[in-house]
Write the structure tokens for this entry.
Amino acid sequence: METVVSGIRSTGKLHLGNYYGAIQNFVKMQHEYNCFFFIADLHSLTTHPTPVDLHSNVKQVLVEYLAAGIDPEKATIYIQSEVPEVTELYLYLNMNAYVGELERSTSFKDKIRANPENVNAGLLTYPVLMAADILMHRATKVPVGKDQEQHLEMARTFGNRFNRLYKHDYFPEPYAFNFSENLVKIPGLDGKGKMGKSEGEGNAVFLSDSPETIRKKVMRAVTDSGPTEENQLKPTEIQNLFDLMQVVSSEDTLTHFEELYNKCQIRYGDFKKQLAEDMIVATTPIRERIEDIAKNEAYLRQVNRFGAVKARESAQKTLKEVREIIGFKRI
């Protein structure tokens, strides 16, 4: 089976964007591919260098991976920092990554604009660490969003450069992989961009949110004064809410509110109430599993140990061969 690698940073709880944009596909992939799904705690330090409780953040993502349906018997679930081989490969790849190409990374430019007080070396070499995560398992398929495609291209560059410099056709080329035919982009509730952890609590609906919390968040979502012409184009903040409804609601429900909007008869209060209730229906089974799994410390330790062993088996094999190719030998 081909190998798939993907990870989610441990910077907070998982939300609908993580679930519908990634994890739902992870659950399907695990039956057809050799999957490695990791919790990117090292990556999280690039933007959150002094987390209040890194351990709890990591544990939360592990719990939510399991609650969302990732099966540790089918896929390898592991914590990035518990596979030290990744950081050694990261070091070797850094030797052949050039400052100029790293500085041209769109993500790096965006991050330094957003956080000019935290322009650290880890932020600059983020694409190299991501390449190490992928190349460590010699993956050929990587589920990524549009914002990560440049990083994936850089991972191919670093792997191919290693092959060329050391005259070994060792690392395969990893490519973007989407298990579903249609990419799902989950917008946030703030009327601007995609749902995300860093855009503020009110922007994201988390998988662990209570029904009351979901209702409050959705009712506060940005809207306008309503359509003034029949069949008019929806402004971004309204289209975002309809896009969310398309994901969590039935086709009949969506059609009903589309027709009301097109006839200038929509009442946003009713629309938001329906959207909130459908989100609650969608997340309740996951939230209940989150609450149950979080209590089972023995199971979480077992999953963590099992995943670390499997991930390190793969990583140690790769690193042994990489060291030999570079020329590290015992005297």
Observations:
- The two ends are 38 Å apart (CA to CA).
- The beta strands are 3-9, 34-40, 76-79, 141-142, 175-176.
- The chain has a mean pLDDT of 93.
- Residues 297-326 form the longest helix (30 residues).
